[in-house]
Amino acid sequence: MAFSLHDTDADEIHEINVTPFIDVMLVLLIIFMVAAPLATVDVPVDLPAANAQPLKRPDTPLYVSIKPDDAVLVGDAPTPFEDLGSALDAATGGDHDARVFLRADKAIPYGRLMTVMNALRDAGYVKVALVAEDAR
After folding, report:
1. Are 132 and 106 in contact (CB under 8 A)?
2. How many Å apart are CA 75 and CA 22, to the nearest integer?
């Protein structure tokens, strides 16, 4: 039994199989992506006092309220839903950068709240803050 130089069974393959290497690297990447945010949580820091002046609050905040009977009020004045934009323009003097505080009764359906928020956005008021009671 003789071996020839061209025997295909004895040829060595000189290529590296990189698939297991890539699999290990992807697993390590996922582990570090999950572990990195957890390593920075709850770091106790004693912060210094700031000398900055607090932001100016409006003298009279502008409230848009939705009552349980689905009535919409701008400030204390009942307003038809169709006139919400013009009532806000009258209350803010046309200042579309004014912050609007939206209060809604907890019995109001979420869809109705979103309808009022869409009407505020359509009227040009995008600085809307939702008001809730303090849980304490």
Report:
1. no
2. 62
Number of residues that make up the chain: 136
CA angle, residues 131, 94, 104, in degrees to nearest 5: 20
Which residue is listed with tokens 């009942």?
78
User: Closest by alpha carbon to 79, among 59, 100, 58?
Assistant: 100
**Do 64 and 73 meet the contact criterion of CB atoms below 8 Å apart?**
yes
Of 55, 96, 122, 120, nearest to 130 (Cα)? 120
Name the residue with tokens 């100016």.
56
Q: DSSP state, 59?
A: S
Q: What is the pLDDT along the chain (136 residues), one digit of tens a residue?
A: 555 555 555 567 778 888 888 999 999 999 988 888 776 655 565 566 767 676 666 677 888 888 888 888 888 888 888 888 889 888 888 888 888 888 888 888 888 889 999 999 998 888 888 877 766 5
Classify residue 126 by its DSSP letter.
Answer: -
Phi-psi region of 87 (alpha: psi -120 to 50; beta: other; left: phi over 0): alpha
From first CA to last CA, the distance across the chain in angstroms is: 92
